[in-house]
Amino acid sequence: MTQRNRAGKAKPTDAGSTEIDLALFGALGDLAQRKLYPALYQLDREGLLDPATRLLGLARQDVDLDGFRMQVEKTLRNYVKGEELEDEALARFLARLDFIQLDFTQPEGYDAIREWRQQGLLRPMVVYLSVAAKIYGDICHHLEASGSLDEQSRVVVEKPIGYDLDSSAEINDAIGAVFPESRIYRIDHYLGKETVQNLIALRFANPLFGTQWNQNHISHVEITVAEKVGIEGRWNYFDEAGQLRDMVQNHLLQLVCLIAMDPPANLDADAIRDEKVKVLKALKPFTDDMLGRDVVRGQYMAGTTDGQAVPGYLEEEGANTESQTETFVAMKTGVANWRWAGVPFYLRTGKRMPEKLSQIIIHFRQQPHYIFDPDQRGLASNKLVIRLQPEEGIALEVLTKDSGLDKGMRLRRGPLYLDFSSAFPKTRIPDAYERLLLEVMKGQQYLFVRRDEVEHAWQWCDNLVAAWADRDEPPRRYPAGSWGPVASIAMITQDGRSWYEDY
Ligand code: BG6
């Protein structure tokens, strides 16, 4: 593909350099304020942004540069911890900002972006689209037509990419008409989380786990991504999506991929992503008879969170009281290949649960021959608990002898625990967006999702959504502040197992 290149030839940068121009579409939006400015500020504070890097905010709103900088400063004061807000770093960060008011869907105004780039000595440009996916194509087209791009420009897009396989293909085609795959960075912010990254280190740097990581040694895998919050003013978006599309299609399936994939040949982006795609292709599809047994959809009713009464999903502001959208999903699935044959993967995720908790539990098989107290047999297996949030850490549950003369050979379960914040007390655990932004700037793609990953994930979800539609059953209700519908507990109990409870 040849791009018109009226902006001129981009200055070549060293591999790994963060000397770029970042153009942020949706600069006054929610994501930019909650996540992107705080992350960029932290990178600047840590000395990870090149002194020459510039940030251009683009939004429809009519504000001038001073107004924009004031707004960003207010945001930072809101979202960055007081002790991390340093005057010098703040002033340096604000001085990097520029602003252009723009109607994103119209071609007029894009020339101003080209001119802004020319002032910046044509460093590579990163275009960050923090806007609705349906206008990704328009923006890419107008950027190209105005000559604002060159052969080094990259684009970052946020989920959700579409609503199903067809709509995601349409959006990906529109982006792909302007940017080649090697310069498209699809964000799944879970891939930027510290412990998610650690899954790769844990699995592939530790021979102890490497040799055990298969159906001979692992009985089942459990993933819980629970949120305490409800819909938070996003009712319209959420009601079209539901928890399956909002959380499972992306975040949970990415976690499944990192747990289930075979070792990549190296850490190159495509080596990792090739292995992840193989997992997505091997995910078991849901057949009709599995639906009633292995999948539970739920919707929260009024209840309590932290002792405060909270409304049900259908009573949230702007709600359609007939909605049957799920705010909770639990499912038993699996990966149909040699490594994972017969190993169930139990997934559950929901809004308005008792706490915010994301964790993965690898349950190892029991010893082939058991010699201890028969009453304690239920205790007798090792578990690896990988806590993504809060309190990031890894615990390996082992069995030891209970101490004391009167205990005989009674067993006791206890963790070998690596809590990241106490193990590395001087290291701040960065937010996922800090890492992701840094990798985009450096032009490293391994933490971003390739088109075929998105599409295989949609294919699997579409199959489930179609099966749900055929059954036309309302979601099961659960009170806000609970762990979901009772049926989700029955789903795992029918296999003689239970959802993991913290030690
Ligand atoms: C987003 C979803 O992708 O992830 C939100 O759209 C959800 O609905 C959020 O609340 C959860 O992210 P985290 O990092 O808070 O677990």
TrEMBL record:
Where's the Glucose-6-phosphate dehydrogenase C-terminal domain?
201-499
All residue ranges annotated as the Glucose-6-phosphate dehydrogenase NAD-binding domain in the record: 24-198
- Which InterPro entries does the record cross-reference, listed alphabetically? G6P_DH, G6P_DH_AS, G6P_DH_C, G6P_DH_NAD-bd, NAD(P)-bd_dom_sf
EC no.? 1.1.1.49
PROSITE patterns linked to this entry: G6P_DEHYDROGENASE
Q: Which GO terms describe its biological process?
A: glucose metabolic process; pentose-phosphate shunt, oxidative branch
Q: Mind listing the UniProt keywords for this protein, alphabetically?
A: Carbohydrate metabolism, Glucose metabolism, NADP, Oxidoreductase
Q: Which GO terms label this protein's molecular function in UniProt?
A: glucose-6-phosphate dehydrogenase activity; NADP binding
What Gene3D superfamilies does this protein map onto? Dihydrodipicolinate Reductase, domain 2, NAD(P)-binding Rossmann-like Domain
Per the record, the pathway is: Carbohydrate degradation; pentose phosphate pathway; D-ribulose 5-phosphate from D-glucose 6-phosphate (oxidative stage): step 1/3
Q: Which HAMAP family match?
A: G6PD
Q: For substrate, which residues are the binding ones?
A: H189, K193, E227, D246, K351, K356
Q: Which NCBIfam families match?
A: zwf
Which protein family is it in?
Answer: Belongs to the glucose-6-phosphate dehydrogenase family.
GO cellular component annotations of the record: cytosol
Q: Does the record carry NADP as a key word?
A: yes
Please report the name of this protein according to its UniProt entry.
Glucose-6-phosphate 1-dehydrogenase
Catalysis: reaction(s): D-glucose 6-phosphate + NADP(+) = 6-phospho-D-glucono-1,5-lactone + NADPH + H(+)
**Catalytic residues (positions):** H251 (proton acceptor)
